[in-house]
Amino acid sequence: MPILAEQERLVAQEKNLINDATQYGDNTNGSWVTVHDWGNITLGSAGILLIKFNSFLDVSAYYSAIRIKVGSNYVVTSYVNTSTQTTFGTAVWLAAGTYDIKAEGYLNGSDSNYYVYISGFQCGFCAFNDQQGASVQTYSSGIALTVANRNTPVGALQQATYFVQVYAVTSSAGTLLENIGQNLTNGVSIYVDGTQVNWSEIMGEVGQGGISGKMALPFSVGSSHTVTITKRNGSTVVTISVIACPWILPYSFGTPVKINFSQGSTLYCMLEPWYENPSTKFVGVGAVHGISFGNTDDFYSSGTGSDLVNWSYMMDIVDISNNNLMAYGLGACIGVIAVDAR
């Protein structure tokens, strides 16, 4: 039989809308200022906007933040206290339309010679098979999304990653994102189907600023899952975007498909950078064992690393019906799956 393949990342639809290597900086101390405004981008259809940038200072020990505004909404922030470039990014769902893209900076330091910088800014349009989304909005009530089940060349869809990006701010006060068991001042918590879950990433600002966070966890396809935000302070404003897709890698182990093909076939999977290029992205066949000695022993074959990870495994002696295709890697995605069926 020929190889049966499916490209899940629809690269022919992608557009690199802004790609600016220029370094921009500001040395205003103690207040938010516009570091750079790139002007408008236009999306012809609803979909995913990817954002990536570097942020750094002249010297370590001071601290600062860069936050990105898309249209009328702040979507992500970065806390920086080092002169070493650090890369930040996110993905948000946007409705079709025109949006101004702006970077704002905050510097906390005593010397006007020191600057906060942003460089290497990119944003672009991205699309996948099986994607669902709720556009960036000021949170007011639960957001429910359903990813439909279907068959792929390697088996039926099993789980989709629900990728949530929030930005939260409380006027004249600090804001914190709460994990399970915490009770924090001006705390913001996230729930899925009524059960609290932990944030996958938390990134604070400085002084009296806001905070941003991500949740990227797997949930079953074929049924609706509702994302809910709770706030300890009613005046806290939360901006939220929700994306649901099997091909976005979660923060922890997920099973995008239940593999189902003839024994002795070779399974293929390509991992790709998405808004980041994490070296920790992982795909493998197996499962976390009752007593785990780590990925090397829990999985009969696996692939990991930066950049494109091309992984394949001939499933000859390992029972297909008794194993899972599992993956994780916040900031990355699955681009292609395939099987050489025998």
Order of helices and strands: EEEEEEEEEEEEEEEEEEEEEEEEEHEEEE
Helix vs. strand class: mainly beta
- Please tally the helical runs, counting DSSP H or I stretches of 4 or more residues: 1
**The CATH topology of the largest domain is what?**
Jelly Rolls
- What's the story with the biggest beta sheet? 5 strands, antiparallel
Short recap of the structure:
The protein has 342 residues and is mostly beta strands. The protein is built from one helix and 29 strands. Strands 2, 3, 5, 8 and 10 form a five-stranded antiparallel β-sheet that branches. It has a five-stranded antiparallel β-sheet with strand order 11-22-15-20-19, with no helix packed on it. Strands 12, 16, 17, 18 and 21 form a five-stranded mixed β-sheet that branches.
Kindly describe this structure:
With 342 residues, this protein is mainly β. The N and C termini lie close together (7 Å). It has three domains: 3-8 and 254-340; 11-126, Jelly Rolls (Sandwich), CATH 2.60.120.1340; 132-245, Jelly Rolls, CATH 2.60.120. Helices cover 1% and strands 57% of the residues.
Topology at a glance:
Layout: E1 3-7, E2 15-20, E3 24-26, E4 33-43, E5 47-57, E6 63-70, E7 73-80, E8 86-94, E9 97-108, E10 116-126, E11 132-138, E12 143-146, E13 151-152, E14 155-157, E15 159-169, E16 176-177, E17 187-192, E18 195-197, E19 201-204, E20 211-220, E21 224-231, E22 237-245, E23 257-259, E24 266-273, E25 282-286, H1 295-298, E26 299-304, E27 309-314, E28 324-328, E29 332-340
Parallel strand pairs: 16-17
Antiparallel strand pairs: 1-29, 2-10, 3-10, 4-9, 5-8, 5-10, 6-7, 6-9, 11-22, 12-21, 13-14, 14-23, 15-20, 15-22, 17-18, 17-21, 19-20, 24-27, 24-29, 25-26, 25-28
